[in-house]
User: Fold this.
Amino acid sequence: MTALYDVAAIGNAIVDVIAQCDDAFLEREGLVKGSMALIDVDRASSLYDVMASGIEASGGSAGNTVAGVASFGGKAAFIGKVADDQLGRVFTHDMRAIGATFDTSPLTEGPATAQSLINVTADAQRTMSTYLGACVELTAADVDPAVIEAARYAYLEGYLFDPLEARRAFAKAAALSHGAGRKIAITLSDSFVVERHRDALLGFIETQCDIVFANASEVCALFQTTDFDAAVRALAGKVEIAAVTRSEHGSIVASNGALHEISAYPVEKVMDTTGAGDQYAAGFLYGLSQGRALPVCGQLGSLAAAEVIAHYGPRPQVSLRDLAAQNGL
Assistant:
């Protein structure tokens, strides 16, 4: 089958609310700096009321990655659950406006579209409080075989490992993708996700995944070690490609016994790290879909990450395709 999509992603369909704050605000609200915490609808309402004014933008980790792939000029699709409400319609419009395919049926009753309340401190660390709402209603029935089988790479968002039904959706996607001769990639998303589901994640990675994206804290949490190099080697022994980011220290790409060290692109001023890992995955997967060498894939990922941390918001504000061309990629 000829591939219609470079990347098809499954993840939480979320609208982000991003505001600046100081450390005192985080302490008052009992928020752990740099973390992602799940909250209920009442906490979402009370936290929103005390946050500074900010911006609202369609987000969600895998959705951000799809936006990055599209900005590179790639063909992308997204599978995720929104409600038939105002925020759900905003999210749907935003996904389709960037040229991505998004046809998942919305909820007509039940919880509202998800939102993530993101407080960003002066050091650009983002602290996320997320009401998952309609996201948790995603089921295997929402995984369209026509989309997954037509994508060179299916990309799974680790945050979705919490709901059992979503794990079934992941299993269905993996079976469809591999059955069509395609590849499965997953991002670990957050060290707290890893701590909650370590054994299940390891089992899924070993049996179903070809590519894993992680950052330093996540990969170390996965293997319960403080030895970064050992954790990378352990992950590389389980998958075809392991891509591990290290903030300003760039990333390590491990595959078939080889290690590639990728430098971070310089950024004049880091404004907001929201979406950095998502855009790294976008550049990397786009590069893979175009048959680029692994070091180049890493460079494309680093370039996309550098663009997104230079402004507020989790999605590119300039054409990543043009930016790559300007940088000889």
